[in-house]
Write a structure and sequence with these properties.
By secondary structure, the chain is an alpha+beta fold. Strands 1, 2, 3, 4 and 5 form a five-stranded antiparallel sheet that branches. Strand 2 and strand 3 form a beta hairpin.
């Protein structure tokens, strides 16, 4: 399996708006892609604002290509989400999942 890692920065007051966007839009869009396994939205507050990390898990690079297109490392960011960010990664990183600890 492959983990896809992406992050963005935003103002603290916009964090609830992005959490809502993720729950309402991103989740359903990802679930519609064959080969999607799961996604987690991580948040944190810092002195410089707020940060989000989206970590999605896929069963193959082919599944990621179906989601991201021919440039699998290009970030997929909806315009309404991008408007909330002060900055965000334009490129994502992929990691092969070598091991996990089941719950």
């Amino acid at each position: 399996m492959i983990a896809r890692y992406w992050s963005a920065r935003l103002r603290p007051e916009d964090l609830p708006l992005y959490v809502h966007h993720f729950r309402q839009n991103v989740s359903s869009e990802l679930k519609a892609v064959p080969g999607f396994v799961r996604a987690e939205l991580l948040t944190r507050h810092s002195d410089n604002g707020a940060e989000v990390i989206v970590l999605s898990v896929w069963d193959s690079f082919e599944a990621i290509d179906a989601f991201a297109g021919s440039d699998r490392e290009a970030a997929v960011v909806a315009p309404d989400a991008a408007a909330l960010f002060t900055s965000y990664d334009r490129r994502v990183r992929h990691f092969e999942i070598a091991a996990f600890a089941p719950s």
